[in-house]
Amino acid sequence: MVAYLNSKAFGKAAMDIEHLLLRLRAISDNDLRLALNAQSLAIDDERFITAFNCVSASHDIARTDIDFKGPPNIPAAKLREMRKRASVVFMAFTALCYMRSLHLERGLDDVPEASILRAFRDIYRAGSIKRGDDTLVQHIRNSLTHGTFQFERTADVLFTDIAWQESLSISQLMELCEHVHRLYHAAFKVVIPCPPNWSKYGSL
After folding, report:
1. CA–CA separation, 25 vs 65, rounded Å?
2. CA distances, 164 to each of 1, 16, 28, 143, 180 (Å)
3. Residue 86 — pLDDT band, cuts 50, 70, 90?
4. Rounded to 5 degrees, what angle do the CA atoms 187, 188, 192 make?
5. How far apart are CA 135 and CA 21, in angstroms?
6. 9 falls in which pLDDT band (50, 70, 90)?
7. Domain boundaries along the sequence of the chain
8. Quick one: pLDDT band at residue 131, thresholds 50, 70, 90?
9. What would the DSSP string read from start to end of the chain?
10. Confidence band of 10 (pLDDT split at 50, 70, 90)
11. Terminal-to-terminal C-alpha distance of the chain
12. Closest by Cα among 170, 185, 176 to 85
């Protein structure tokens, strides 16, 4: 079941996936890699290296300690807001559209009930009633690739996919993308050092 936040977008509350994110935070990167290996869900396409680099760059865009020069007629505060939005879009597109493996994502559908990977399966299935329905992730992908999304004043992003419309807080969207990044990072055949902040996962 998906809960909703109090902020409104077109008269509808924003989707709240906090209960799903809590389950993902409880999984360490080492346990995640072991579970993926046990299910033979490794990926080896070299394009994922590029995807990981893009995720890193998306973080850099929003960093206040990195000086990005804009046109002199744009106030510094406006430039920071533009960089933040660009970071969100770049991160979401990289994590949910470009960084995509049918082998990995479809493989999550068949993991055992007791597997920690069920938490990742459930985040991919969020928003659907039954298997085969379009999910939250799929709708966001469609919205991103069609360009039908907008930032709200309530710190939410409103996604539109034909007749479907949903909003998600920027903080939850970015955390969703981080866990997708963790999943692909752990599934990649070459062991790459994890970002330092991931050490908190599994101990929360």
Report:
1. 27
2. 18, 16, 34, 10, 23
3. very high
4. 115
5. 16
6. very low
7. 15-123+170-200
8. low
9. --EEEEEEETTEEEEE-HHHHHHHHTS-HHHHHHHHHHTT--B--THHHHHHHHHHHHHHHH-TTS-----TTS-HHHHHHHHHHHHHHHHHHIIIIIS--HHHHHHGGGS-TTSTTHHHHHHHHTT-SSTTS--HHHHHHHHHHHT-EEE-TTSEEEEEETTEEEEEEHHHHHHHHHHHHHHHHHHBSS--PPPGGGGGTT--
10. very low
11. 22
12. 170
- 158 within 8 A of 169, measured Cβ to Cβ: no
Burial class (CB in 10 A: 0-12, 13-18, 19+), 126: middle
Q: ∠ CA(127), CA(9), CA(126), 5° rounding? A: 10
What the block records as the tokens of 155 is: 């710190």
What pTM, to 2 d.p., does this model score? 0.88
